[in-house]
Amino acid sequence: MNKNGNKISPKALLHSKWSKVAVTNKEKHFIITVVTFDEQQKVIECVIQAVMTKNEYTIDWRELKDSDKWKIGWQ
C-alpha cells in the first residue's frame, strides 16, 4: 500500500466521491451510497456505486485508503 495513503474518516464516508485507478467495466467514478455503523461506531457496511452503470458493490471501506487503487474525488 502506498505510504501516502488516502486519509478518510468513517464519519465522512457517506456521499464521498472516489475515482478508481484501474478502470474496469467503464467504471471509474464512484460515490458512497450506504454506510452502516455498529453500536461502537465501527463501520459494518459500506456500499459504493458506480456513477456510469449504477452498479453497487459492498466494499471494506479501508480499501479506499490505498491510493494505488483509489483517488479521492472524481479525477
UniProtKB/TrEMBL annotation:
<protein>
    <submittedName>
        <fullName>TIGR02450 family Trp-rich protein</fullName>
    </submittedName>
</protein>
<dbReference type="InterPro" id="IPR012663">
    <property type="entry name" value="CHP02450_Tryp"/>
</dbReference>
<dbReference type="Pfam" id="PF09493">
    <property type="entry name" value="DUF2389"/>
</dbReference>
